[in-house]
Design a protein that fits this description.
This protein is α/β, with parallel strands linked by helices. It has 2 domains: about 130 residues, Rossmann fold (3-Layer(aba) Sandwich); about 220 residues, Orthogonal Bundle (Hypothetical protein af1432), CATH 1.10.3210. About 55% of the residues lie in helices and about 5% in strands. It is built from 16 helices and 5 strands. A 5-stranded parallel sheet has the order 2-1-3-4-5, sandwiched between helices. The protein is elongated and about 65 Å long. The two termini are about 40 Å apart.
Length: about 350
């Protein structure tokens, strides 16, 4: 039996954009086209699309009005809508997201990025059911884990245009867990982490809140100004809120319990100077303290749009100096005990 393809509705009045999207998506999806908002409203109940790509600047009825009318008529309940537009200002993006769009992509767009975003939004809608019967427990777990990986990779791709950061972090976190799990002090904290896999999976969602941050801030090649920095820091609260809402309806409460704490608190500092709450020392959840070191180490040794990579030895020195300041001193000690093996592990990953 041939598996039915997902249906993508492209709403755009520009022939070139339509041709590019059809070329990029038609091999994987059934692509339908509406040249204006009125036609889209007529077409949606007929084809029942799985996802909608919606332009904003169109004659007669713009994208904002089109989405508003689709919502009012109840035609796209649970159907993700992505704005695909030449409007690049943060205010336009904020307006689009406030109307219920799940994403906002600016033109000219990267075909591979559009394909990736569509895939992840469809995965969220179609392939994951948070209320799975017990008989499907194994498959549910596998699918949920895949969702975590894809969402984490999606956030990472939006920030750095690559997803290797998550894979490398997971290597380091697993090593730290193995060391701390042998210490008497952490036996109670780690009692439910015997397999560690739930925690490892949760760590991939640490920056999920970045999906709601304006693209110009994420890709700025120079230092952020105070207002931009404040906006960027909101990703911790945004990530916490969306994961906490998901946790209430999920059987994977262990993964999401870790993920909620990590998303909110991985930028807290041991000395209380971090954000968003200024938590101090052991008031910071252990899982967030662990992710903090892995996140910073990999960021230091990786090239970013705003900086070059620094050598491994220098990165280790920076983390060592932040012992009892930014980082939990015992986790820093665990990190230093395995730091020498990290360059080889990174090399073996070829990422």
């Amino acid at each position: 039996m041939i598996q039915e393809k997902f249906k993508v509705l492209v709403v755009d009045d520009t022939k070139t954009n339509i041709e590019v999207l059809e070329a990029v998506l038609s091999s994987e999806y059934d692509v339908y086209v509406a040249l204006n908002g009125k036609k889209a409203i007529e077409l949606v109940p007929k084809i029942k699309p799985d996802i909608v790509l919606l332009d904003i600047m169109m004659p007669m009825m713009d994208g904002y009005e089109t989405l508003t009318k689709l919502n009012e008529k109840g035609l796209i309940d649970n159907v993700p809508v992505i704005f695909l537009t030449a409007k690049t200002d943060p205010k336009s993006e904020e307006q689009g997201l406030s109307l219920g769009a799940v994403d906002y992509i600016t033109k000219p767009f990267s075909p591979s990025l559009v394909r990736l975003r569509i895939r992840n939004h469809l995965l969220c809608r179609k392939k994951i059911a948070f209320s799975t019967p017990k008989s499907n427990k194994v498959k549910h777990s596998d699918d949920f884990n895949k969702l975590c990986i894809h969402l984490g990779a999606f956030a990472e791709y939006r920030i750095h245009k690559k997803e290797a950061h998550i894979k490398r972090m997971q290597i380091l976190i697993r090593s730290l867990l193995e060391i701390l799990g042998k210490k008497e002090k952490y036996k109670n904290d780690l009692a439910d982490w015997s397999e560690f896999d739930n925690f490892i999976m949760a760590s991939s969602l640490h920056d999920i809140g970045m999906l709601a941050i304006h693209a110009p801030i994420l890709t700025k090649a120079s230092e952020l100004d105070p207002k931009e920095r404040e906006e960027m820091q909101k990703h911790t609260i945004l990530g916490h809120d969306v994961l906490n809402a998901a946790k209430k309806d999920s059987q994977n409460s262990s993964v999401l319990s870790f993920a909620v704490n990590i998303a909110k608190s991985h930028h807290e500092h041991w000395d209380g100077s971090g954000y968003p709450e200024g938590l101090k020392a052991e008031a910071i959840p252990l899982e967030a303290r662990l992710v903090a070191i892995a996140d910073v180490y990999d960021a230091l040794v990786s090239k970013r749009v705003y900086k070059e990579a620094i050598p491994h030895a220098e990165a280790v020195s920076i983390i060592s100096k932040e012992r009892s300041k930014q980082f939990d001193p015992e986790i820093v000690d665990a990190f230093l005990s395995i730091a020498d093996r990290l360059p080889k592990q990174y090399e073996e990953l070829s990422i």
